[in-house]
Queue: 4 jobs
Job 1
Amino acid sequence: MPTQQYVKTEMVDRIGRIRLDRTARYNALNRTMVREIVEAMETFDRDERVTVIVLTGNGKSFSAGADIEEMLEATPISMELLDPFADWDRISRIKKPIIAGVHGFVLGGGFELALACDLIYADPATQFGFPEVGLGVMPGAGGTQRLTKCIGRTRALEWLFTGDRMKAEEAERLGIINRVTADVEATVLAMAERLSNQPSMALRLIKDAANKAVDLSLQDGMEHERRNFYLLFATADQTEGMQAFLEKRSPIFNQQ
Ligand code: CAA
């Protein structure tokens, strides 16, 4: 794992865990921290011992967004040269499932980071929001796109225009998160444990196909899905899964 100042990582069984660790600043995401999150994800993505990645906050919150102090002096040219959001794009290329467990504030870039994950579970007291408008700017790491694709334009615009904070229950009702849970840590780890026993190649190709559904036409998406389906017939897990069904036993996937 590359050097880390603002995140903590560990591998437990087949789960790669990443914890944000800049608690004195509500895990505000400076560029180094974003780079560390991305590098940790990529390291777990390449590690064959890992099936699923878990991302959680630490201290009082998941994350209060991009580091405002770091952005204060930015200019269009400095942004163009640094291209801070290029690192965020790398999260979209992670092939394994990423589960986010969030609590406290999930604001701005913190909300965008959660939305870049695949499953989101939240503590009941979590507050989500895009406060960027109150800073004279707007979300820049996918917030306007992902929220709009998720809940539709008019509903997304109300949150984006006002910068109001959304309660966890509301986020669940709108389908932005999977579930509100009183014990985020336990819920996230239980789900990660379940997924880590699923066939890993099927998980990645399911994620890949679902991602395509967001961008492609139905017909192109279906063709992509079909190719992924056919590809899975090259895996030992396909033989194991189908044989286990016919032998009326539980399959054991990911056998080395
Ligand atoms: N960037 C930098 N520092 C931050 C920060 C951020 N996003 N959020 C909190 N902090 C720092 C505060 O400056 C403060 O530092 P000091 O102790 O050195 O003064 C420390 O964290 C604690 O914060 P507060 O004293 O403000 O704590 P609070 O409990 O009163 O409020 C909060 C908590 C509601 C999260 C508040 O800090 C806040 O509103 N933060 C900013 C949220 C925000 O606007 N996020 C959007 C950022 S822009 C963005 O994300 C763009 C993008 O699309 C990528």
Job 2
Amino acid sequence: DSKPAEYNKYLAHWETGDGGWDSKYKGNGSGFSDRLPKGSPLAHFERRKTTAKQAFEAENGDNNPFTGEPHSQQYFNILKSRRNLPVHKQRQEFLDLYQKSQILVFVGETGSGKTTQIPQYVVYDELPHLSRKLVACTQPRRVAAMSVAQRVADELDVTLGEEVGYSIRFEDKTSSKTMLKYMTDGMLLREAMHDHDMSRYSCIILDEAHERTLATDILMALLKQITRRRPDLKLIVMSATLDAQKFQRYFYDAPLLAVPGRTFPVEIFYTPEPEKDYVEGAIRTVLQIHAGEDEGDILLFLTGEEEIEDTCRKISLEVDELVRETDCGPMTVYPLYGTLPPHQQQKIFDLAPPPLKKGGRPGRKCIVSTNIAETSLTIDGIVYVVDPGFSKQKIYNPRLRVESLLVSPISKASAQQRAGRAGRTKPGKCFRLYTEKAFKEELIEQTYPEILRSNLANTVLELKKLGVVDLVHFDLMDPPAPETMMRALEELNYLRCLDDEGELTALGGLASEFPLDPSLAVMLISSPEFYCSNEMLSITALLSVPQIFVRPAQKRREADEMKNLFKHNDGDHLTMLNVYHAFKGVLNRGEDARTWCHKHYLSFRHLSSADNVRAQLKRIMETQGLRLVSTDFNDKNYYINIRRALVTGFFMQVAKKEKDRVYRTLKDNSQQVMLHPSTVLQTEYDWVLYNEFVMTSKHYIRTVTGIKPEWLLELAPAYYDIDSWDGQKDVKLALKAVADKMRRRAAMKGGH
Ligand code: CDP
Ligand code: MG
């Protein structure tokens, strides 16, 4: 039996244990008050006719013009530093251009004040109490949306979540008072599905447009149309690179405002030979800087959470030794990546530590970050940048139908942005861990827009829901390859989200309500038919957060032993479900879940966030009238039902066994794949479905569950239509045998 003992105790409490998200949900931020606090200087402002001088005076006042509360001392301190930012000098120029144009392109170096200041300039001119509409500012990254919203709430001297809020997938921190909303580009896109004109907003600011994320590209195309329908809507496209003509041209030759950069020279160093191990090289370089270079903080770019945490640990250990043995100053090391909890993110803005003793060598901080620190977040005080030249990038292969995150070389443009981070406050140095020749000859100029590197199934579904009828003529800045588009349409058709004419089906419409990939959404929607929607909610939530199992390099064996406690022989999905049930048991008994997770090598953070995600998905299920049901736990079909429900979403991600732990995917340029080492699957299954195809030097499938081929024929007959099968011959024969067996069985049943 694969169920942990805690499970049964937990079962009784099943529906009571949701995270607190529902109770915290505070509506969507429209309908704020049209009344200003008494004596507010804004009362004399005329919408879209204000001046910078008027705004300065209002900002200088004793009381907050939006809330009427007295301004704090912190407010005035920050105000002083805000007025040193490069954009400040151009506030009037900005307003002039803003007031006379509907669309505006705004470029400026990272750190010039675009993200924090421009939305505030807009609020002071849009006057939400008059327009009764919000100002939105999109960010490609969740972390940036959250941390910038916090910063701007401080700058405006208001509580985060009230006048200034943020909205990211699975978390809405806004209220009826919200007038300025930072949000991920993906969230604005989701909102647009129900509000095709984005009518809640008077101005939309697309920030970090140069990043060219999938959602930003789609938003640009939508807004290009919406601005024609809604002359009152303003659009600002902000970008960190000076390559802005492309945006101008795309947006009907919109005017451009450029803030001159304020950067110091950065000296660039290359390695004479290529690095064998870039992480090792990076650690060595950081230590050399700390031991030998003058005062100033260090920023090291790496690729992902695990690598970053690992490296932070190693650097800290080495620094401790250095401090013991030499006269080096102290150094604090901070990680920075997308899923870092907010209170830890905020720490990167802490000051460097003071010298160990009076007159000793100064301390410094070292931030080890993903691409987030490239343009999204500005950290003052960075003087040294260490750039190994890699980042994790999404790659899509439409032939294999595989989308994966791969550690890949960055572009020249990225390398330049990274180096620029060193010259913010004084002249800096950038250490590139690659040769100058490699930089010149091997790096591509620009990173390709995400839309050219993605599976578009989700996007196509969203566009259909957004009412875009003619996908071919939808005016994208860089249209994707027709093959990728075809693949997406085909996939959605197999999932029954689009009919044979390419029209949105009822199922497709329902699926688009979930902030999930279509396959996950379809699986969730089908799950009541399999009497396991409660369980599928949990599994879907677990698949939507980062890996819940922790496996530290030095403690692999211990971690694996702990994982074995939760192991389900039929595969990883059910193992994860066991973990979640046990986790909920711990929570419901009021035990210390953090300690419990630590002891069992589980991520408390990711499990808690799965719990939140689950609560939200549950809300959507309820709103959409989908039943929440479970099979009786003692019923022999309890796990079978779950595995069958998995097939309804993942029938296109199935592999058939060739030999021990070696499988072969079925259609679409069938590939040989290995079970990922993390896979617990123990029972011998000839057919498995997988959540993820991992491309490294070998191909792996990860998060795998055993299934029966009968289920494929029964639950996905169109995809597994034997007569039109164009995949492997032996698979066709195997499927045919299964079909014959099913027919014989049915006949026997019918005959008696
Ligand atoms: O968007 P852009 O890169 O042009 O600049 P920004 O994000 O508006 O940052 C302007 C300045 O605000 C930075 O140089 C920081 O000094 C400050 N800032 C901060 O102190 N804390 C934050 N969370 C964000 C910005
Ligand atoms: Mg910015």
Job 3
Amino acid sequence: VFQLSVPLNFLGSVYRELRQSLLDMETLFNLQKVNIAVKEPKDAKPLLLTGGEIRFENVTFGYRPDRPILKDLNFTIPAGKKVAIVGPSGCGKSTILRLLFRFYDVQEGRILIDGQDIRNVSLESLRKAIGVVPQDTPLFNNTIEHNIRYGNMDASAEEVRAAAKKAHIHESIQRFPDGYGTMVGERGMMISGGEKQRLAVSRLILKDSPLLFFDEATSALDTHTEQALLAHINSILKEKSRTSVFVAHRLRTIYDSDLIIVLRAGKVTESGTHEQLVDRAGLYSELWSTQETLFGGNGDETNLSGEG
Ligand code: ATP
């Protein structure tokens, strides 16, 4: 038995990686037809978005049914608000996104978007409704222009440039050897992590989804680049009111959210605004003071702790 468990573990991690790269592919291509376990009903109607409220009701889910990751999970992400999901590593934050996209179905409970069970709506309309900036944006061996246009293959050259301007990447692109025609990806020019994530944001702008998901989108960046990207994202969010969900490790990137949902062991352990959670002296406040002790120290943070 012991000897067997090693190759099985290995297969498990290979499988997991495959699933995760599929997530990226699906996000980019919006490949409704390629899905593995999930079926849509014959009479599936398109998702009808009224404001963009996301609700998890008594959701239980595990990649293996005997090992639940989310346990009777309940939360509501109000329409048009900026919401953060935080919690210790492995508590199921990214799993929430995979369930929303219906890469898997819940084992118990239901997920509602604007009151509609996502199992009853067409997969195409569901996946179109959600735009994602992942932690590491995959680039295709193609031009910058093409890479941005993956957000919306029908976009005109002007729309691609307008999106790049909003994401604050247009000027950098103009400095690239062939501008928008510059080849990137494995066989093309290397671009920085910050530029990559701004490309992802321009894709998101082109896709124009009403629900936005930032899955550790800035976590691979240095603090300065991260702050700049977050400022751009915030100004884009202010333009139109959209539901936006930030999955984050570093609490300093999300403390200004309208609502912060704190997960522990597959359940919501507490939720509220930054101020409310700091006052509660629970897990959030514990994580906050640990991170401030570890990474704090400049003027910004002194101000922040003064407010909390
Ligand atoms: P982190 O903050 O480290 O990114 P997370 O909160 O986003 O973690 P998830 O990625 O949602 O956590 O994973 C939750 C749990 O599910 C982890 O224990 C992880 O190992 C496990 N897990 C994730 N994906 C799979 C998969 N495809 N198959 C099996 N187990 C998985």
Job 4
Amino acid sequence: MEFIKVEKAYAKHVALIQLNRPKELNALNLKLMGEIRDSLKELDQDDEVRTIIITGNERAFAAGADIKQMAGKGTIDMWKVDQFSTWDQINKTRKPIIAAVSGFALGGGCELAMTCDMMIASETAQFGQPEIKIGVMPGAGGTQRLTKALGKAKAMELVLTGKFISAEEAFGYGLVNRVVPVELYLEEAVKLAKEIATMSPIAVQMAKESVKRSFEVHLEEGLHFERKNFYMLFSANDQKEGMNAFVEKRKPDFKGN
Ligand code: CAA
């Protein structure tokens, strides 16, 4: 990999993807996004991995799509490249993904963090969709996911002015799970990832799928989807293990089958 580092066994059952274009503030060029897509696909298939963390560095999670790569492009170039199909694939990852965010999470960087399932932010993190300042608008889900998290008025303000919000403000809106001192943001993300990794990976993935479904469909259909997944879990050994462990007053040992 040229622009990311991947550690499959960063902690027990936890993989880490680190964006690695520090000089460019981890600007998301096409190759980097392709590398994230490919490694997520591989990690999703690896039974040893149960939770995935995506992070950048202290200064920047990512300062957006690579403006220099896009500057000279026309509509048909953009259509042919179809860069957002990569994002669709990332969004299909079954295992939970935690974004560990410090510094700038702007434009595509904010969108990448929002495509993840949870966010741990350092107190220096800044979130924003500044595309409007360069004559365009968010294209990787910003107008949709930010609006769902922040509500119409605040999302509209950020998208139309390009202003940033702080980690604390993002926490207030429920965009991030928690804010911690900068030296702890990765550690805190690992702690959360490890906790989730002790659960049944099958139940975790079906629960993730069900929560995500609530953003796509109306309540009745969502409840139906949830119920099917709930019933499906009763054909997994992990369900027997989890419930027997409760009855026998011991800790469950989930094997993911
Ligand atoms: N694309 C390409 N290069 C970028 C970049 C980006 N999104 N963001 C930063 N860089 C580069 C800078 O060009 C600079 O490179 P050079 O040293 O070669 O000049 C280097 O990273 C460091 O950046 P700055 O010198 O600008 O650092 P700063 O601390 O003064 O400012 C910043 C930091 C406020 C984040 C500023 O870099 C900035 O405004 N970046 C662009 C943010 C942006 O507009 N993002 C949206 C991109 S479009 C998008 O994401 C579309 C989408 O929906 C997918």
